[in-house]
Amino acid sequence: xxxxxxxxxxxxxxxxxxxxxxxxxxxxxxxxxxxxxxxxxxxxxxxxxxxxxxxxxxxxxxxxxxxxxxxxxxxxxxxxxxxxxxxxxxxxxxxxxxxxxxxxxxxxxxxxxxxxxxxxxxxxxxxxxxxxxxxxxxxxxxxxxxxxxxxxxxxxxxxxxxxxxxxxxxxxxxxxxxxxxxxxxxxxxxxxxxxxxxxxxxxxxxxxxxxxxxxxxxxxxxxxxxxxxxxxxxxxxxxxxxxxxxxxxxxxxxxxxxxxxxxxxxxxxxxxxxxxxxxxxxxxxxxxxxxxxxxxxxxxxxxxxxxxxxxxxxxxxxxxxxxxxxxxxxxxxxxxxxxxxxxxxxxxxxxxxxxxxxxxxxxxxxxxxxxxxxxxxxxxxxxxxxxxxxxxxxxxxxxxxxxxxxxxxxxx
Length: 412
Prior knowledge:
The chain is of the alpha+beta class.
């Protein structure tokens, strides 16, 4: 049996930085990874570019049942600390729109490479193909059993992620460990994922992108708004702002509420402005057909759908024949198109997990369990998830560094 100061379960983003932080603070560390590769999910972030952080960190960018918890950790190891950490490892970064941070090389592989180089430099051991079969604590020592080896230590960091991204090895196994030690799990749901909608126009609009505002409305109550790109797919809608609404959808669908997504394709204009725009287009182009007079205002593929939804059957008629009632219906759809939704796509398609280990049972300074001394948590396994834009990776870096530092220091 091998003896260590700190055992890190999980070799993703939070697990890697946990191990590096612990080793830098003097601990002998091992990473236990269930698959044959480290950092597989990290390689897929930002479509392979690795949206590694965001300069606009704020509490409202994160979700948790314990709302004050995320920002406290993020302040202890902040964006500047993160960028400094990676700069020392060799990653030059650039800041793009909305504060998104990417490596200058635009390669997630480069981020993983420098982390692995640092793991090797610090002589951190890695056990591959080693799913945890059992973990016990006896006389203040943790014993972690894998199919090929048993390792022990005084400190364990659970950093094995949630359930999002089954193809990368995520399966929620960390929840079983947490529950074994008495921790409550807030029901996990897929987040940052496509929303499903079974409508006649889905296939017709496949691939169409719109920049606008989307709102989640359930049983007549507007739950949340998000602004950005909306993309239509053959089985629903996606895009950054849709992803940001997907987390809240589960809560309401699971309660039996009827939900829809309200899309405002012209968020910079009022309803009255849109009426004026439509009337002006009629005045300037009275001889265009009903279908033609909307070209240049919205995506061409959307025109026939919007007109059909507004009750117009013959689109070859002159636009001048449109009634005020028809103009009002078109304007209403452009400003508030209601699309019924039924849920989201599966875990395999989700970017992150909503829910997880209840953070009220975790120390907000050290990330140590309030129930079991020597047990720490890092990353997505906790009930913390951010919106699109690098916020979830920043949570992984911050929580991982803090957990690793405190696990190492307390082991001394």
